[in-house]
Design goal:
This protein is mainly α. The protein contains 4 helices and no strands. Helix 2 packs antiparallel against helix 3, helix 2 runs parallel beside helix 4 and helix 3 runs antiparallel to helix 4.
Length: about 150
């Protein structure tokens, strides 16, 4: 059998640059989610405080706010949203083997490859922050229903 050698060329500079940018973006996903979490904490602390202040101001000097289930629901959702956001920011210990770039998908192992580490870390933060956003939105809906 006559096998001819495969003709190859070195990777061009633009292709190298694109690959580098791709891997930088892939590795920095968790950092981007950390920045989002910090912004969410600011909002999740400010809104309940503003809401409580507005409730007090609109009820007047001697009036009291009726505490009903919607008020408990509202502040409960906001508290859980803040807790999930903080949990997303807290570091987690992962078992990573830095000598493995990409793991074999057919073999289940407790030790992560580098690629799996970045993926798992970002995915964990994503789901915690998505749940926090949903809870915060539910709390906001509850805040409107408190007034009715």
């Amino acid at each position: 059998m006559d096998e001819e050698p495969i003709i190859t060329r070195p990777v061009s500079d633009p292709t190298k640059k694109l690959r580098d940018k791709f891997y930088e973006q892939y590795a920095s996903q968790a950092d981007q989610l950390d920045a989002l979490a910090r912004q969410l904490i600011t909002i999740e602390l400010a809104i309940p405080g503003l809401y409580a202040t507005v409730l007090k101001l609109t009820q007047g000097q001697d009036a009291t706010v009726a505490v009903n289930n919607w008020l408990y629901f509202t502040f409960g959702c906001w508290f859980l949203a803040l807790a999930l956001t903080l949990l997303a920011l807290f570091p987690r210990t992962w078992q990573v083997d830095p000598t493995i770039i990409k793991s074999d998908t057919t073999r289940k192992s407790q030790v992560l490859s580098l690629e799996d580490y970045f993926f798992q870390s970002a995915r964990r933060k994503y789901w915690l922050l998505a749940a926090a956003c949903l809870l915060f939105g539910a709390g906001t809906v509850g805040a409107v229903l408190v007034l009715f």
